Amino acid sequence: MAPSGGRGAAIDIRSATKRYGNFVALNDVDLNIEPGEFMTLLGPSGSGKTTTLNTIAGFTELSAGELSIGGRSVVGLPAHKRNIGVVFQHYALFPHMTVGRNVAYPLGLRGVGKAERDRRVERALDMVKMTDFAHRYPSELSGGQQQRVALARAIVFDPPLLLMDEPLGALDKKLREWLQLEIKRIHRELGTTFVYVTHDQEEALVLSDRIAVFNQGRIEQIGTGRRLYDEPETLFVGRFIGESTILRGSAETSAAETAITVAGERVVAPKRLGKGGDPVMLLRPEKLVLVRSGEPVPAGHNRLRGRIGEVIYLGSGSKYEVSLADGSAAIVRSTLVDGGFAIGDEVDIAFSPVDIKLLADDDRAD
Ligand code: ATP
C-alpha cells in the first residue's frame, strides 16, 4: 500500500468514540493507516472526519478508545509533542512574517541552527515551487500560494505524518485540481504518511491510496477508490462515490438468481446473499446501454422501458437522464458526443445482471 520509503508513521485507531455531552461525534471507529500511505477521510459535513483528524493531531481527546502513532500509544500526549505537520483550510500563516520566516518557524521551535534552517527552508520552498517568494509577506500572495507556503511550513521539519483538513476548500476548481496533483507529487517524493480530510469525492479519488468513508460518526467502508466505486458495501457508499442510478422493486430469490420487479418489468440480478427487506439495485452510468425502444440489446441483458428526460453534453461524451414508468430516473453515460437521442424519445435501457449491485436499503428517504 505504501508508495515508497517507509519513512512514514503508521496510525492505529481502535474503538474510538468521541462524545460531546449526549452527542456522539465518533462512534466506535477502527482505522489502520499504513506507513507512507495517503489516506483520505471522506464524508458529508458533520460525519466525524475533522474529529478523527483532530484526535490524531492531539487537538481533541477521545472519550474512549485507543490511538497509536508509529506503534506508540499517544493517548494523553499533547499535540506539540507528536511531531506532526498540519495544514488547514484557512491558511494560518503569520501575517507579520515573510514566507521564509513563516516556513522557518517550526525549525526555530526545535532549536535548529541557522545554516541548517536556511537549507531546509529552501528545500521545502523548492518542493512546493515557492522559492522565488521567500521575501514576500502572506498578504502579497494568492490563496493557492499561501496554501503552498502552509504546506512547506508543515513539511519543513520532516514529520513522519502530515494531516490536512480541506486544504484546498477555499480555492477555485482549476487551482484545486492543479494543487491536487502537486500534493500527490509531494506525497510521492516525501514518502511520509498523509491523512487528508475532504467532502469532495472526486478529490478523494484523485489523491488517495485508500479512502475511509464516514457517515454519522462511523466508517461505512475503507478501500481504494476503485474498490469503493466497483464494490460498495452500503448504499451510502455507492451513492457518495461516483454517479449512480438507484432502482427499487420487489425481489424474489431462487437458487440461481434474484428477480426484481421494477416499474412492472422483471430484472434479473445476481443471487442475493443475506436477508432483509427488498434490496436496492445500484447501477453505474457507464454500464447502461441506451437503445431506441424495442431495438435489440446485448445478449443476456436486462431491459427497462423509459423516455429521455434530459440530454447533457459533456464535451467528451454525453449523459442522459431517462425517466422510467415508476417515476425513477436512470443516468446513462455514453462516449458518443451525439448518440442521436433527444428529449422525449422512447428508449430502452439495457444492463447486464453482473453490473447490478444489490444493497441493503439503508435509507428510503431519497
Ligand atoms: P465538516 O466537513 O463540516 O467539518 P466533519 O465530518 O469534519 O464535518 P466533525 O467536525 O468531525 O465533522 O464533527 C462531527 C460532529 O461533532 C458534528 O455534528 C459537530 O457539530 C460535532 N462537534 C464537533 N466539535 C464539537 C464540539 N466542540 N462541541 C460539540 N459538538 C461538536
Automatic annotation (TrEMBL):
<keyword id="KW-0472">Membrane</keyword>
<comment type="similarity">
    <text>Belongs to the ABC transporter superfamily.</text>
</comment>
<keyword id="KW-0813">Transport</keyword>
<dbReference type="GO" id="GO:0015697">
    <property type="term" value="P:quaternary ammonium group transport"/>
</dbReference>
<keyword id="KW-1003">Cell membrane</keyword>
<dbReference type="InterPro" id="IPR003439">
    <property type="entry name" value="ABC_transporter-like_ATP-bd"/>
</dbReference>
<dbReference type="GO" id="GO:0015594">
    <property type="term" value="F:ABC-type putrescine transporter activity"/>
</dbReference>
<dbReference type="InterPro" id="IPR008995">
    <property type="entry name" value="Mo/tungstate-bd_C_term_dom"/>
</dbReference>
<dbReference type="InterPro" id="IPR003593">
    <property type="entry name" value="AAA+_ATPase"/>
</dbReference>
<dbReference type="Pfam" id="PF00005">
    <property type="entry name" value="ABC_tran"/>
</dbReference>
<dbReference type="Pfam" id="PF08402">
    <property type="entry name" value="TOBE_2"/>
</dbReference>
<dbReference type="GO" id="GO:0016887">
    <property type="term" value="F:ATP hydrolysis activity"/>
</dbReference>
<dbReference type="InterPro" id="IPR050093">
    <property type="entry name" value="ABC_SmlMolc_Importer"/>
</dbReference>
<keyword id="KW-0067">ATP-binding</keyword>
<dbReference type="InterPro" id="IPR027417">
    <property type="entry name" value="P-loop_NTPase"/>
</dbReference>
<dbReference type="InterPro" id="IPR017871">
    <property type="entry name" value="ABC_transporter-like_CS"/>
</dbReference>
<keyword id="KW-1278">Translocase</keyword>
<keyword id="KW-0547">Nucleotide-binding</keyword>
<feature type="domain" description="ABC transporter">
    <location>
        <begin position="11"/>
        <end position="241"/>
    </location>
</feature>
<dbReference type="GO" id="GO:0005524">
    <property type="term" value="F:ATP binding"/>
</dbReference>
<dbReference type="GO" id="GO:0043190">
    <property type="term" value="C:ATP-binding cassette (ABC) transporter complex"/>
</dbReference>
<protein>
    <submittedName>
        <fullName>ABC transporter ATP-binding protein</fullName>
    </submittedName>
</protein>
<dbReference type="InterPro" id="IPR013611">
    <property type="entry name" value="Transp-assoc_OB_typ2"/>
</dbReference>
<dbReference type="InterPro" id="IPR017879">
    <property type="entry name" value="PotA_ATP-bd"/>
</dbReference>
